[in-house]
Every structure is written in C-alpha cells, then in structure tokens.
Write a structure and sequence with these properties.
Layout (H helix, E strand, L loop, with lengths): L2 E5 L4 H18 L3 E4 L12 E3 L5 H13 L3 E6 L18 H9 L14 H7 L8 E4 L15 H11 L4 E4 L12 E2 L6 H8 L4 E5 L2 H9 L3 E6 L4 H4 L5 E4 L18 H4 L3 H14 L7
Parallel strand pairs: 1-2, 1-4, 2-3, 5-6, 5-8, 6-7, 8-9, 9-10
Helix pairs in contact: 1-7, 4-6, 5-10, 6-7
C-alpha cells in the first residue's frame, strides 16, 4: 500500500496543520502519511503519521522525490495555502486554511480544529496550580520575520495584563525575547511548543495575536481572544469558539508583508476594552463548549 508524504517547513502552526491533515487523511483513507516539518515533537503520538527524521527542507524534498521516482510513495505534497512573493505575493484566501488544504490532499471534509496528541502524563506534568484564581494565558508579541503587520501594541498588552490580573492569574508564554508583561508565572522560553500546548490545557482562556498558540489552544480545547487586526481574517484561519477581533477596512485582509501604508489602522481600532470584553464573554461560557 503506497503512502503519501506531506511537507511544510514554515511556522509552528503550519506543523500543526500537517499533523492535522495527516490524521484526517489516515482516518478517511486508512493510510498513514509520511510527514516532515520543523518541529517533530508536534507529530508525536499521531497514529496517522510516519515521521521523516530531518529538519531540513532540502533533505526532505530530495528524499520525497527519490521515493516518488522509486514508486515507494504515491505522491509528495507541500502543504502550501498561500502564494509566495515569486507568485505575486500573498493574497486573501477564498476559504479557511483547513478547507484549502483538505481539497489539496483529498480529504472530503475539512477539519474543524487542529489535532495534537498529548498524553495524560504530559498534561499532568505541565499542569498549573489549580488552587486559587483561574489562569489566563497571554502572549505579548509575534515573530516579525514574516511581517510586523500582525503585531498589536506593547503598551496595550501591558495594560491588558495588568487589568486581567485584577481577577485572574496570568501565565505568560512565548519566546524569551518577548517583552515581559505583568504576570503571576513567566514561562517565556521555558516550554517547548508541545509543552506550551499542555500548559494551555490548564488555562481558562488565552489572549493572543494570530499564531501558533491560538491553534494549540484550539487543539486542547481552550478558548481564545485573538487579535486579528486586518492582516488576515478569522474566516481564513480562525475558530468559531473564539472571540476573533477583526477590523473590516477597505484594505483588509491585506496579507501585506511590507510596512503598512495606513500605519496599521486595523490594529489601532482594537482596544484594551475590546480585549477585556472578549475575555469576559469567553470566560462566561466556561467549560460548556470545551469538547467542540
């Protein structure tokens, strides 16, 4: 039985997409998928995958082409959902990323959320103290390698964290280089992407920008308040159980990687009060939709 191979060497969220599409392909077609990406840990535990042991895009591509030539695999598919600069630049999508990718690999029904197979031992090992106020996770910034247009404002994040701590405990996740916010537990740079997802399982909510953590939170059933602004839109990458703050302007979603000519007006429109209102709505729902 020939297998397929799925590749994606971009962000952490993209590795979750590979993991998810491989799992759903296996469930629908009964064939395990060979996968490769930057963070193999995110594939661990998935019954639908064989992990290619390389972190190199070039090595994975060469290996895949060789297996195709030797008829050892049916096909190799790079899970691309956006056009690149050489193809004319990134453009708004017609549907959700999962819909685009499901059609690309031959899955009849697009996944509703990412999948990540965490063991009970992992969740227990990373669990936050349950005594006291509920935990709210926060992420202060995004990687600017692709674009600055996805980032909100540090002063607003600082005020937001301070306001949240009046009622809840705040755990900060992200890279060690992220600006530190007022928090009760600083885990910046201390958790692998997989462990960060396990930490989110202990949280009542996450407040963040578009990125890996919002996908990881969806995978473990934690609702989020997500700052979209106008770079991309919730119908392209978001989840219905979240509060997704999107600014509908003539130019949004833009997918613009160059500096914004409108001084990020879409981000300016999202206030701390908007975030707090979104958090209130998410927390009011409580656990009733955690099994979405």
């Amino acid at each position: 039985m020939k297998r397929k191979m799925f590749l994606r060497f971009e962000g952490l969220g993209d590795d979750l997409f590979v993991n998810t599409l491989a799992y759903h392909y296996w469930r629908e077609h009964g064939k395990r998928v060979i996968v490769a990406g930057k963070k193999h840990g995110l594939f661990r535990g998935n019954p639908g995958v064989w992990i290619l042991p390389t972190h190199s895009r070039n090595v994975a591509h060469k290996f895949g082409r060789l297996m195709e030539e030797l008829h050892l695999i049916e096909s190799m598919t790079y899970l691309e959902y956006q056009t690149n600069e050489e193809q004319g630049g990134m453009k708004p999508m017609k549907g959700h990323i999962f819909q685009v990718l499901a059609e690309k690999v031959g899955i009849s029904e697009a996944p509703k959320k990412p999948v990540l197979f965490l063991s009970e031992k992992e969740i227990k090992r990373t669990a936050l103290p349950s005594n006291g106020k509920p935990w709210v996770a926060i992420h202060s910034t995004g990687v600017t390698k692709m674009t600055e247009n996805k980032n909100w404002y540090l002063d607003r994040f600082e005020l937001l964290a301070s306001e949240i701590r009046k009622k809840y405990r705040v755990v900060q996740l992200g890279m060690v280089s992220d600006p530190v916010l007022e928090n009760d537990l600083d885990l910046r740079g201390q958790k692998s992407p997989r462990d960060a997802a396990a930490v989110l399982a202990s949280c009542s909510a996450l407040v963040c920008q578009v990125g890996y953590l919002m996908h990881a939170a969806a995978a473990v059933g934690t609702r989020s308040v997500v700052i979209y602004g106008g770079f991309e839109a919730p119908w392209e990458s978001g989840y219905e159980q979240n509060i997704n703050l999107f600014s509908k302007l003539d130019c949004s979603p833009c997918w613009l990687r160059k500096p914004c000519v409108h001084d990020k007006e879409c981000m300016k429109k999202i206030t701390v009060a908007d975030m707090l209102d979104g958090l209130k709505k998410v927390l009011e729902v409580g656990d009733e939709n955690q099994s979405f």
